[in-house]
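User: structure tokens for this one?
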Amino acid sequence: MTKGKIAVALSGGLDSSVAALLLKEAGHEVVGIHACLWNSAHSQHQVRQAEAVCSTLDIPLYVVDLKREFELYVVDPFCREYERGRTPNPCIICNRHVKFGFLLDRALSMGADYVATGHYARIERLDDGYHLLRARDTSKDQSYFLYTLSQQKLGSILFPLGGYSKTEVQEVARQRGLPVAAKASQDICFIWQNNYRAFLRQRFSTLPGDIVDSQGRVLGHHEGIAFYTIGQRRGLGLASGKPLYVVRIEPEDNTIVLGSEKELCSQKASVGGVNWLRELPSEPIAVTVKIRYKSREAPATLFPPRHYDPEPFTFCHSERSEESHTAQGKLREEEAISVVWFSRPERAVTPGQAIVFYKGEEVLGGGVIQSTQLMAPAIEGEKHVATSKL
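Assistant:
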């Protein structure tokens, strides 16, 4: 890489701080750029941390106010998805629109040649373009969060930590005396102490409704579909003779559907909003997929848009009508929907979550799970006996 001016997106945490240090030690002109995203004491602490890091490294710091953009592009869609009974990933949305959108554009307009972050991932440039790869430390790999990047953006981004383990990064910070703690950051930056319910109640009103089994029998009542997610077992407010899980959320009826662990498994999923980092496959391909950040990679066949599924495909969430799919299981050509057919049934495939496609260690692309085909429900006559505690 030709040496140039690099703006490091400094959060004030360990990883981005070490990224800045490594780039400066490699001889680059480095500046820090910090995005203010949220009004909170924690955000103010992050600014102070970024200032301390830049003082130690003797580099300038630019603070950019992106609170309005963060609210419009991340927080509002996050709340709307939960209101629909879906489970979004705000970090992916933030990477797409804020970190590698507004912040990247701002840094480049200020004269930076590249923007670097503390993500654990790698970018490889070959004759056919840029390739996004998993980090060397697979236990810390964050390529899942980066599938929305484009070829153009990959050419302006650096991930200095891609070849390091977390332990090595911590040791670099200790040896160089960086004023940062090694503690992990919270899951979602704008929900302090992960109190989802309190945050969502401030944003919209919730409507109580029925909790039913897969045969439609009422088992109890819920406080609002926004407070439940696929695969949930605890906090249902029910006493049952056997384990019950949330297998479907039906916003049209304001209903939570419970079932057995077998009913929680899906053979197929439809995926919308797909981004391909390079070329769109022309034929179905064998891939591995991750249905959430911490899930294992699962083997699957990926059917790009406008390809036939070899078997009828009956959706069990938001796409249950003949209008969405023909009786033969053919996807309507005007719908840019891809289909993932899992080699083995996968547990708790959740609408609203991202699914990312891999070929070896390379990220091919990803999208948002729209709907799933669940496994067969409990055998006829089997009853779930539950008593509401609400």
